[in-house]
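Researcher: I'm preparing a figure for a lab meeting and need a structural model of a single chain. I don't have an experimental structure, so a prediction will have to do for now. The sequence is pasted below. Please return the structure as tokens so I can convert it later.
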Amino acid sequence: QVQPVESGGGLVQTGGSLTLSCAASGQTFDSYGMGWFRQAPGKEREFVAAINWSGGRTYYADSVKGRFTISRDNAKNAVYLQMNSLKPEDTAVYYCGTRRVAHGTAASSFGSWGQGTQVTVSS
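Model: Understood. Here is the structure written out token by token.
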């Protein structure tokens, strides 16, 4: 079983950049697709980006397309989210999860969530 631990969050100004990391324990890490989700106060957890097991396919929410990049390094059991041109509406707790079903971007399609890392974008 893969257990992720997120890091890299922080406070950044509008237009700034951050890179989030997800370190995943478990010997079968490279068998799983991985995803990044975020949750703002009072809102549901929403899809941000996903990557397949090899890193050859990536998927993005329309709200972050062109600004965020998801990548993975299976040798390091890690997934990354490079976030550029950050906006105040990107403020949320960001979570890393492992894919549980073959397709879909709903939160229910992923599991084994980490504890999350807070991203705050000031205007």
